[in-house]
Amino acid sequence: MNNEKDNQIIELQRRNAELFKFLDELNAVVIDQDKRLMILERQIREMRKQTEQGDSNPGTSLIQERPPHY
Q1: Residues ≥6 apart with Cβ < 8 Å to 47
Q2: Of 15, 19, 28, 67, which is least packed with CB atoms within 10 Å of its CB?
Q3: Which of 24, 44, 48 is nearest to 36 (CA)?
Q4: How would you write 6-60 as a 3-class SS string?
Q5: Lowest mean pLDDT among 5-9, 20-24, 46-50, 57-61
Q6: What is the pLDDT, as a whole number, of residue 32?
Q7: Rounded to whole angstroms, how far apart are CA atoms 42 and 1?
Q8: Residue 3 is inside which H or E element, if any?
């Protein structure tokens, strides 16, 4: 009976270690996604500024006009 409880405790410790490892991996993914999201948000802000500046200066628009032969 004592051996069975020891085995159960060992199994629970093993599962606990696996869960901690999984949690660390998941945390790393979330941190990476947060960094990427911050970069994308900064790029969007910069693009908006450029677009707004392009609206006031027609020659600096981000969207290129089609050549006359189209």
Answers
A1: 62
A2: 67
A3: 44
A4: HHHHHHHHHHHHHHHHHHHHHHHHHHHHHHHHHHHHHHHHHHHHHHHHHHHCHHH
A5: 57-61
A6: 98
A7: 62
A8: helix 2-56
